[in-house]
Design a protein that fits this description.
single chain; mainly alpha; 2 domains; 5 helices
Length: about 130
């Protein structure tokens, strides 16, 4: 695997370029993995898990809450149905992206999302927004 030391001014240009490329590649990998709960295993990149975890630890303290939080807290439907709706729509996205489902299935997924609570959430949030 080679040395894991950081880039130093005395390193050759080739070595410095290699380290910059590796950091960019791992950075992209960490950014991809930060949004996927519980997924931090990357075959062939043994340090990726540790680096992704550290990136999360560094990022969480500087994160900000969503400005929509006051609105979302006031939606009874959001509170009870969002987890299921979010899972369903993410499953549809994953199915399309991975080729398990055709792109034409997206319209049906959106209709199902709305029918199972998404439309009601939108109505509740619009009413809250109009009253402010």
């Amino acid at each position: 695997m080679g040395s894991r030391r950081p880039v130093h001014p005395g390193d050759s240009d080739v070595r410095q370029r290699h380290h910059r490329h590796r950091r960019r590649r791992l950075g992209r990998l960490c950014r991809l993995q930060l949004g996927v709960e519980g997924t931090h295993f990357s075959p062939g990149l043994p340090d990726a898990t540790r680096e992704a975890y550290q990136a999360e630890q560094d990022t969480v303290p500087i994160g900000v809450d969503t400005p929509a939080a006051p609105y979302l807290a006031g939606s009874a439907t959001y509170s009870t149905k969002w987890a299921q709706l979010d899972s369903q729509i993410n499953d549809a996205i994953s199915g399309i992206v991975t080729g398990r489902q055709p792109l034409s299935s997206w319209d049906g997924a959106v209709k199902q999302f709305g029918a199972q609570g998404g439309d009601q959430i939108a109505k509740e949030l619009a009413a809250q927004h109009a009253s402010r």
